[in-house]
Amino acid sequence: MSDSFAVLQLDDLPARRCSCGTTRRGFIAESDGQASVHLLQVQDAVTHHHRVATEYYIVLAGEGEVELDGVRHPARPMSAFLIKPGCRHRAIGDLTVLLVSLPAADDTDEYFDD
């Protein structure tokens, strides 16, 4: 690895459960926590929000919806969503999503409604 770039294969990263389904997260350490890139397979997503992170969802495959502050929006390949801090959100359906988080994903910045 170089100090000026990093390369990874998202689908080779270990999968882990998250509030949206299964994620493979990359570039957290390499970006010094400034950003992360995720390959997300949506499954049983739970509505949540972040107080710090801004997320970008880019749908790569599948059909479904992305719910933003209670409003459902259709999602299909090449649909993109900007989710700012405080926006309650979840993805619904059989979706594969490229997710970019600024700053990098941090499980302590995930909040659920009671």
TrEMBL record:
Protein name stated in the entry: Cupin domain
Coiled coil: none
Domain Cupin type-2: 44-92
Matching InterPro entries: Cupin_2, RmlC-like_jellyroll, RmlC_Cupin_sf
Biological classification of the source: Bacteria, Bacillati, Actinomycetota, Actinomycetes, Micromonosporales
Top-level taxon of the source organism: Bacteria
UniProt xrefs under Gene3D superfamilies: Jelly Rolls
Residue intervals passing through the bilayer: none
Organism name: Micromonospora taraxaci
Pfam family, one: Cupin_2
